[in-house]
Amino acid sequence: MSISYRIKYADLRTRKPPTNGRRGRRFAARIGGMTTSQSPLSDRVALVTGSSRGIGAAIATTFAQAGARVVLHGRDEAALAAVRAHLADLGAEASTVTGDITVAADLERMRDQIGPVDILVANAGSTSSRPQPIEDITEESWRTDIERNLTGTFLTVKCFLPAMKERRRGNIITLSSAAGRKPSDRTIIAYAAAKAGVQLFTQDLAAQVGPYGIRANCLAPETILTDTNEQWIPDDVRHALAESHPLRRLGTPDDVARAALFLASDESSWITGVIVDVAGGAVLA
């Protein structure tokens, strides 16, 4: 399996900060005396669920390059092995766990394998539904989308949160979607409802866990050119979608990964309970 995504902009390991003058002094003050050999997520354990491909794999890659000890998660062992090999090529180590995030016992087993987690990215989620009138949505497909996206996020956070509270530190990032941010007659309604639920869940979570030194924030991407979307969205449709965004392009997994890195790092230490629209201006609140 080939890994098609790559870090397209500055490699975090080789990016050099300013070393003199006013900009250099501001930079040194902002990172609190951190040396250039250190990285924003140095020595932190980061679990990224759903990281065998797409957005999750890009987040895991970016975190690993930022110094984190990354734990990859998914259900496709071959895909996980490919991402792990890609990280090894970049000089980063990662471990892998498998399991179903909608099954509490699987999550508990994963937690026992991993140990304490500093950064939890609840990214796993999906839909196989399609836009259709509400009266045509089956109960089965409704429940499936809610389970995969909202319940899975809830169970993941519920499993790893107690240890964070005990240590009085932690960082949780959930993944929603622009589908949960704006109404449309072409929305996959159960998926959108689940993702909107993730947003409010994250904000309630942030209010509860702030006193324990834990932050919780939510990313809401719009159309992202993952491998799957690049394969299935025709060129003419892709162009039309890009034109509907003020920035006139579609997002990439790396766009989401860089936003996740900011929220995971100390650069955002005074930010919690926010929903960040990684949407090219398509969601203007």
Mean pLDDT: 88
CATH topology: Rossmann fold
Helix content: 40-55%
Largest sheet: 7 strands, parallel
Uncertain segments: 1-37
Topology of this protein?
Layout: H1 21-30, E1 45-48, H2 54-65, E2 69-74, H3 77-89, E3 94-98, H4 104-114, E4 119-122, H5 139-167, E5 170-175, H6 189-209, E6 214-221, H7 227-232, H8 235-243, H9 253-264, E7 275-278
Parallel strand pairs: 1-2, 1-4, 2-3, 4-5, 5-6, 6-7
Helix pairs in contact: 2-9, 4-5, 5-6
Question: How would you describe what is shown here?
Answer:
The protein is α/β, with parallel strands linked by helices and 285 residues long. It has helices spanning 21-30, 54-65, 77-89, 104-114, 139-167, 189-209, 227-232, 235-243, 253-264; strands at residues 45-48, 69-74, 94-98, 119-122, 170-175, 214-221, 275-278. It has a 7-stranded parallel beta sheet with strand order 3-2-1-4-5-6-7, sandwiched between helices. The protein has one domain (39-276): Rossmann fold. The protein starts with 20 loop residues before the first helix and ends in a 7-residue tail after the last strand.
Quick rundown:
It contains nine helices and seven strands. The protein has 285 residues and is an alpha/beta fold. The chain starts with 20 loop residues before the first helix and ends in a 7-residue tail after the last strand.
Name some characteristics of this structure.
seven-stranded parallel sheet; alpha/beta; single chain; 13% strand
